[in-house]
Amino acid sequence: VILTCESIFRIIPIIRFELYNKESSFLVPTNLINEILRIFKHHFLYQFKVLTCISGVDYPENLYRFQVVYELLSLKYNSRLRFKVLVDELTPIETVENVFCASTWWEAEIWDMFGVFFSNQYNLTRLLTDYGFQGHPLRKDFPLTGFLEARFNFPKNRVAYENLELAQEYRVFEYLSPWENHTK
């Protein structure tokens, strides 16, 4: 085992350490994520050369609403690490594309889905939603139906957007089981 808590605690500032199913997870300061990832990529004892994923998590009840998770893999030592940073809705995170060039797509995806902004990221574009889309659909306060309905308008030969209105009559459901006797 190349990773010992003592060696890691000596080289990086850690806010919180979690160990779950033999997988280490570190909550680190947001402003130091570039330096921390660079250390673990290039240090000869660690060599986490592969960024396997960047994920976003939304906790709307927390002060720092979003958690951005970086998952690293060391092929040489067959080991994985997870680094987490906390961010609110307004504070940007520094991009890590200068450390891992593959992070560009994931950062754009997190911006598209959650609205977390990455500073110095040259390609923050909508990847999974339409260009005229308003909002960020993986936020927990995003309405389940969305705000607009997109449909193709044949006379105008283009996509038309209309405000979404879901009107439904009030219905009463009787949840009777066909396997039970419901006679009175």
TrEMBL record:
Residue ranges occupied by any NADH:ubiquinone oxidoreductase 30kDa subunit domain in the UniProt entry: 28-146
UniProt key word DNA repair: no
Residues in the signal sequence: none
GO MF annotation terms: NADH dehydrogenase (ubiquinone) activity
Source taxon at top rank: Eukaryota
Keywords from the named record: Mitochondrion
Annotated PANTHER family: NADH DEHYDROGENASE [UBIQUINONE] IRON-SULFUR PROTEIN 3, MITOCHONDRIAL, NADH DEHYDROGENASE UBIQUINONE IRON-SULFUR PROTEIN 3
Family: Belongs to the complex I 30 kDa subunit family.
Name under which the protein is recorded: NADH dehydrogenase subunit 9
Lineage: Eukaryota, Sar, Stramenopiles, Ochrophyta, Bacillariophyta
